[in-house]
Amino acid sequence: MALRCLYDVAQGENSKYDAVIWASLKTKTLTARGAEEIRESLISTLSLVQTIVGELGNPNPSKDLPELLEEIIGYMADFRIFLAVDNFETLTDFALRSFLSRIPVGSKVLITSRVGLGEIELRYKLDPMDIKTSAQLMRKYAKTLNVDFLSKAQQRILERYCRSLFYNPLLIKWFVSSVALGADPEKAASRSDQAFTEALKFCFENLFTRLGTTEKEVLHVLASARRQLTQTELFYLLNEVGQRNRSAIDWSLSILHSSSMLRRTLDSSGRKPESPIFYVLTDFAAEFIAKCFPPPSVLFGRVQGALKRLREMTEHSVVAAAAYKYEIRAIRADTRDQRISGAYLQRALDAARINQMDDARYLINEAKALLPNYSEPYRISGFIESSAGNLYKASEEFEDALRLDPNSSIARYSFAIFLSKYLEDNQAALEQLECALKIDPEDPSLKNAKALALMRLGRYPEATQIYEELLASLPSRRRWWIPITDQAAECYKRWAEQAEQERDDSPFAERLQRSLQILEESFASNLYDEKMAERFTKIVQAGFFYAVKTRSSDFLRHLLQKMEENKQFTGWYGFNRISFDYVKNAFSNDRDLINQLDRLTLKRDIVWHTPEDALTASDFDERPETSSSLSVAKAGDQPGAPQRLNGMVTALTAGTLYGFITASDGSRWFFHKNHLQEGANWMEFREGVKVSFSIGSNKSGPCAVDVLEQQSATA
């Protein structure tokens, strides 16, 4: 192409140039016999410059390089000179860069090269030939060499040969020359043939050996991945093999793109506009690397291992989201680039789980740097920072997540959980949930969370309406049965207590009975947990208070019947806010009822705990405590306090601030994050961890306090 342009310039009637000079740096030529050295080829910058000066009129250019370059500049200033330098990538130094930036006005320089010159070039990139043009070249060249077999061959045969030769003009000419000398065309076009491999080496070896370490790693990673990659995927895989300099990778991609080894393609589907560009080796380069410079086994293993981990992470998130759509730890990734960012986020979650917060934050920042406009890194960061107690930072991260993707219902849900759990701002949480429900109006998790926020705000009629809708659909949504029924029962209980506090006793019994009915239906369906069984006892206990206050023996008998009917589910939980004497004194005139109470107490169908704050007859007119305060009375602060107990964490729900410990004697104890001993780290607690603790109490009754992981205690 360059030669044709030069002939047009030199032979034109109105040429603008006084001289056209051609200098080639090619040192080898490809023949049918293989690569051969070119005699008297230019092998250095000095020899090139000397040749140019000689062509310009100085027959004995014996000066040093700087002087010769100044002499050329002088010629090009005095005359209009068109200088062409072929195969410029052969030079290994950059001595001519300064010279090329000083070309006088009126003269021109044309360079052919597979390695660009950066900012001083105006590039004209030549794309590969198409199949029809390739076949036309083969036919014409065969006709020139009198190879009738090829010049008269059917078009489909020529196209098949050209396809094997990667439509490369040099290989096509080599192939025709080989056939002209008697080579078998099928063998010559076979990529497994040694002569073909030598031809590949001729085309690429000089270029490949001149590449830097990072460029070679990019090519080897692409070859090891065995598929096209986005720039984000390339960053990820290069990071996995040890290349962390992102600016060096960017520069290497620019260099390779200007060569004939790397090709960029667009995502023509248009479905994922955020990652439209893919990088892939050209077929020609892929064959060369496979045959001549394959990636090291260690690098290939690391790349394939990283891709495997990426697939596993994606599958894990898909499974988690399928099982529970609003699982906060499940990462939402729709594109290939987002999956790469998600891989860092999953590792950040794993690091945070074992309290390696510096590592978690570094991985979060890597995910943000890869995709600055992706919402999930900010959402996951908010979750991690909130778990670590950095609430201000967590709030900022959640807000940034919503700024980047205001239509992300999982981001709004996660923010709502944070606002409610950590900041106790249920009104703000409700606003986020209402926005999320506009995006995903039928999801039971969002509805349940909204009902819970309404309940905490004391808006019980609205909350119970949502709970009733959810309860009606539960048979088809068994995943949410336990949390929804438990919260619905609690909501009716609180609504009943609200009526009592407002001195409106008429709806109390109805609401409390609905609360018990919800739990009984769960017991009957065998869909309940220990928390629900404990709640049943607390609701009955609230009913006892009401029965005592109103002197309603019929209502008390109804509650006793409920206790008997459900004792197999609730028998080991007891009353911790009301004493036996308190109830017995209120109904001292009803001997049948007192006898029933005595009998159930003796059979331990009703268990009475008597902590210091339990109500007695002297507290007859006081209202029951309904606060959820976590103030703790420690048994260790009292005379004769028991020694510390040992146990194991047997229930710790993800995303909550509480759990349960099963002691070595089989007893089960509730504990809260605020019950940990000073210095203990909440992030280290998980199911199966051995702990030591003391027995104390909160407003709800006895619980584990001063909880400490046993390893920490021993240390």
Q: Helix and strand layout, with pairings?
A:
Elements: H1 2-11, E1 19-24, E2 28-31, E3 34-37, H2 45-56, H3 65-78, E4 81-86, H4 96-100, E5 108-111, H5 131-144, H6 148-151, H7 155-164, H8 169-180, H9 185-188, H10 194-210, H11 213-225, H12 231-240, H13 246-257, E6 262-266, E7 277-281, H14 283-292, H15 297-323, H16 336-353, H17 357-370, H18 376-387, H19 391-404, H20 409-421, H21 426-439, H22 444-456, H23 460-473, H24 481-501, H25 508-524, H26 530-550, H27 553-565, H28 567-570, H29 580-586, H30 591-602, E8 633-634, E9 645-651, E10 658-663, E11 668-672, E12 690-698, E13 701-709, H31 710-714
Parallel strand pairs: 1-4, 4-5
Antiparallel strand pairs: 2-3, 6-7, 8-12, 9-10, 9-12, 10-11, 12-13
Helix pairs in contact: 2-3, 5-7, 5-8, 10-14, 11-15, 12-16, 15-16, 16-17, 16-18, 17-18, 18-19, 18-20, 19-20, 20-21, 21-22, 22-23, 23-24, 24-25, 24-26, 25-26, 26-27, 27-30
Describe the structure.
The protein is 54% helix and 10% strand. Among the domains are: 2-120, P-loop containing nucleotide triphosphate hydrolases (Rossmann fold); 131-205; 211-303, Orthogonal Bundle (Arc Repressor Mutant, subunit A), CATH 1.10.10; 330-439, Serine Threonine Protein Phosphatase 5, Tetratricopeptide repeat (Alpha Horseshoe), CATH 1.25.40.10; 633-714, OB fold (Dihydrolipoamide Acetyltransferase, E2P). Strands 8, 9, 10, 11, 12 and 13 form a six-stranded antiparallel β-sheet that branches. Strands 1-4-5 form a three-stranded parallel β-sheet, sandwiched between helices. With 715 residues, it is of the alpha+beta class. The two termini are 78 Å apart. Helix 11 (213-225) crosses helix 15 and helix 26 (530-550) packs antiparallel against helix 27. A hairpin with a 2-residue loop joins strand 2 and strand 3 (34-37). The protein has 31 helices and 13 strands.
